[in-house]
Every structure is written in C-alpha cells, then in structure tokens.
C-alpha cells in the first residue's frame, strides 16, 4: 500500500497532491495525515519537486476549505441543516457537528479558522460557520491559508525526514500504511451504515 500510494503521487506530482488534499477536505476517507507525509517522502527521494508539491498541498487544502465556506455562505443556516439531513450521511455529518463548529466559531472568531486548520476533527467543518456568519472572503482565505501552510508544512516535513530513515522502517511501514487506510475505510463505512447525518425521526 505504501508503494502504491507513493507511486500514484509520484505519477501526478503536485497536481495529484493538490487533488488529494482538495478531496481530503470534502470526502472523509482521504486523510491529509497520510497524503502529505508520503508526498514529502517522494520529494526527498527526488521523485517530485518539493516546492511545487508543498504548494500543491496548500492550494488543494485551501480550495477544499473554500468549498465548505461557499456552501455555508450560499445556503444559510436552515437550508444547510436541511442539506445535511438529506446528504450528510455520505459525509458522516450531522446537525450536532455543525452546531459544534458554529459554537466554536462564535467563541473564537477568526482564530477558530486559523487554528481549526490544524485540528483534524475541526479542519473541514470550521469553514462552514465562517461562511454562515459572513466572514469576508479575503479574511477567510488569509487565515485558512496561514493555518494550512503550518499543517501541510509539518506533515510534508515529517515525510521528507522519513526518507533518510527509510532503510530502518521499510519492513513495518507498508503494513502500517495498509492498516491505516483499511481502518479509515472501515470507520467511514460504519458511520455511513449507522446512518449518521440522517434527520432523526420525530415523535
């Protein structure tokens, strides 16, 4: 699995990394914690240019966050909640998740957008209240980009450093990577089948 993912990233270069990071912000089973370290690993081996790959990761991450910002801005609170009731199951979202993000944004404002980009469980959803509350797009993009640079840069650097130690970890790295991917998929399927995100029945 490790070799498969790194080969796929290597084939697409910065574009593949940008696409994966974009999807990571939209579709739960794709974790940036796996994508960017492997992108950094490839860059350290000289398979792809480190600067372009890093920029691709940041651009993809910010673009994915912007999608959620626009969704919140265009739909508004009630229509968004109705959309989550209908489609949230496939994104493992529910009203409670949105309410938590709104509460966090109300309490921390712009800082929530900046720091939220570095918190796995919050990273995607924090864009929604920013759009719902009418945060100016330029300000949103500035804080989102700043937070994404730190998050993406840290993961990228971890993978870059890993390359130098590859001989020491190659025997267990592949099964660990396979296990992580498998666990993520199983958790996603469990949450979908459980029906999280469906509107609760009344009465």
UniProtKB/TrEMBL annotation:
InterPro entries: DedA_domain, VTT_dom. Residues 30-160 form the VTT domain. It comes from Limimaricola pyoseonensis. Keywords: Cell membrane, Membrane, Transmembrane, Transmembrane helix. The chain crosses the membrane at residues 7-27, 47-69, 140-160, 172-193. It is a multi-pass membrane protein. It is found in: Cell membrane. This is Membrane protein DedA, SNARE-associated domain. It comes from the Bacteria. Its main location: membrane. GO terms for cellular component: plasma membrane. Pfam families: VTT_dom (PF09335).
């Amino acid at each position: 699995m490790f070799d498969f993912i790194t080969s796929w990233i290597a084939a697409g270069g910065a574009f593949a990394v940008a696409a994966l990071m974009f999807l990571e912000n939209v579709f739960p089973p794709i974790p940036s914690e796996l994508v960017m370290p492997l992108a950094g690993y490839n860059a350290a081996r000289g398979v792809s240019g480190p600067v372009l790959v890093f920029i691709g990761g940041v651009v993809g991450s910010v673009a994915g966050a912007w999608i959620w910002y626009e969704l919140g801005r265009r739909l508004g609170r009630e229509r968004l909640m109705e959309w989550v009731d209908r489609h949230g199951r496939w994104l493992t979202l529910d009203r409670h998740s949105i309410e938590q993000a709104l509460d966090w944004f109300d309490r921390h404002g712009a800082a929530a957008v900046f720091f939220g980009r570095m918190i796995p469980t919050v990273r995607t959803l924090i864009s929604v209240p920013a759009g719902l509350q009418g945060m100016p797009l330029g300000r949103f993009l500035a804080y989102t980009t700043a937070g994404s640079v730190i998050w993406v840069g840290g993961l990228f650097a971890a993978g870059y450093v890993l390359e130098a130690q590859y001989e020491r970890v190659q025997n267990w790295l592949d099964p660990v990577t396979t296990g992580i991917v498998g666990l993520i998929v199983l958790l996603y399927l469990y949450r979908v089948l459980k029906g999280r995100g469906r509107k609760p029945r009344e009465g």
